[in-house]
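Dear support,

I submitted the protein below through the web form. The confirmation email said the job was done, but the results page showed an empty box. After a refresh the structure appeared. I'm attaching both so you can tell me whether what I see now is the final result or a partial one.
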Amino acid sequence: MGTNATAKKFILLPKVQEIVPYSASHIWRLERTGQFPQRVRLGQNRVAWLESEVNSWVDSKIAARTINSHCEDPKHIGLVNWHQTLVAEK
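What the results page shows now:
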């Protein structure tokens, strides 16, 4: 493997739960709705996740937190309230 190759590493559920503090059933629900990386079937009785995908998911949550922190602006809150009113009227 060259130095430019990205190493792919499978991690099992206990390691996923060290990174993401969710129960197995909640991870499954998130996967089912496309909100969490999909598991990879390694064998008949073994599944794992790509560590890089789980880490990217964590990074996206951190980025969303940063974006959402900018939503404290009163102008943005007014826009959000206006949008919610529109949606509720439909």
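Response: this is the final, complete result; the empty box was a page-load delay. The mean pLDDT is 83.
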